[in-house]
Write a structure and sequence with these properties.
about 425 residues, alpha+beta, Butyryl-Coa Dehydrogenase, subunit A, domain 1, Butyryl-CoA Dehydrogenase, subunit A, domain 2, Butyryl-CoA Dehydrogenase, subunit A, domain 3, 3 domains, four-stranded mixed beta sheet, four-stranded antiparallel beta sheet, 11 helices, globular, binds flavin-adenine dinucleotide, FAD, Acyl-CoA dehydrogenase, flavin adenine dinucleotide binding, AcylCo_DH/oxidase_C, flavoprotein
Length: about 425
Amino acid sequence: MTETVSTSATTESVEEFARRARQWLAENMPPIDPDNPPFAVRAEAESWERAKDLQKRLYEGGFAGICFPREYGGLGLDYAYQKAFNDECIRYEMPLILNTPSFTICAATILDMGSEAQKRERISAAIRGDEILVQLLSEPNGGSDLAGVITRADRRDDGTWVINGAKTWSTSAFAGDYGLMLARTDWTVPKHEGLTMFLVPLAAPGITMRRIKEVNGNEEFCEEFFDGLELPADAVVGEVNDGWTVASRQLHHERRAVGGGSEFASGTGAENANEMPPDHVGLAEATGQGDDARVQDLAGRALARRIVKKQLIDHVGRAIGNGSLPPNAGTLIRLFHAETTELEVDTALAIAGTAGVVDEGDELSGMLDIGVRYLSRQTGSLGGGSSEMARNVIGERILGFPREFAADRGVPFNQVKRNKT
Ligand SMILES: Cc1cc2nc3c(=O)[nH]c(=O)nc-3n(C[C@H](O)[C@H](O)[C@H](O)COP(=O)(O)OP(=O)(O)OC[C@H]3O[C@@H](n4cnc5c(N)ncnc54)[C@H](O)[C@@H]3O)c2cc1C
């Protein structure tokens, strides 16, 4: 069936667009084996240079920023066109690492909340493949209580700002050009009311950035220290002291991105090996347990969960779309995704047994990556807010349970008791 969407900035049908994309991809993008894609290592600078190069090709070919408005460098088309493009590009190397957080969270938030200049400059630079956007929200004090950030922004008489404080766990910030950074601008009002979001140029003097070494040896995350960082008045995103509205929008986009439901993601392939489902059957066979009923049961349970997850994404996505579930329902997908990942990795390690953690120098030592993967099995239940916080959102905002007690609710932030820093 030919699907023509009248709200789009084109008369080209989705089918015609897909046909044109198919031909262009074949002529311009590097083909891959979708079962064995060349994964980009996010911790390496070359991966980002490669991604920018691929993004530039998409832009020059007229296939970048499909759902972003034309005035900001995109194509202004509906999600149906992006989905059709995603189906076509699955066999080609794509700049997948630019999707999150740069496009799906940061550019999407700037599109909703930014000034006209911020939209024209930052979104189009990202779409052209010139810039990468990152998120600077979490602080060493804790990330769950996002409204409790203590990085401070003080306004000078001329309207410019001075920033002091620290952020942490910033995904890929070392490769970023600008970061969305939440800071406290009024300490005399309750915590949600005294926040402002800023767009921070990451190479500015006054920022010290360090890589964080994770337990699996990866060094993708960064921490940033702001010592008298100066920002112009127009670095504010949204309104001064209304940063919570911007942050809430950002979290909304994050939940959609993590659940795989963002129209701003281009390409849906696995970004790295950790996103590929472990091959439980292959593992069982390699360890001589292919006929073991208990192992078959474990593998079957993990497979069933994966199938349910796929159905849940479709179901919740549709329900949010038709209004039968609130937008916060994306949290259901995010929680289920985290739990499914943990079950899959736990199952893989249970099947691999000691081969997953001990290098005996034999043919099974290839399974050691299962052990390394196990070390980061919980990233999905922390990134974008922890699973406990997701349960709070589901309880309070979807099921309508009473709100959790908070000792700081309604209390001016400078009177809230907290640890000395
Ligand atoms: C893969 C990944 C990517 C990330 N990327 C970014 C990024 O790009 N930018 C960024 O700013 N941050 C990022 N983070 C940080 C992330 O947002 C935080 O880890 C998360 O918000 C939790 O904060 P925390 O680690 O400080 O834990 P804390 O907030 O200190 O929480 C500790 C524990 O207490 C529990 N807890 C806290 N409050 C409650 C409550 N009210 N009810 C029940 N339980 C509670 C939490 O669930 C958690 O188990 C990333 C994290 C990961 C793992």
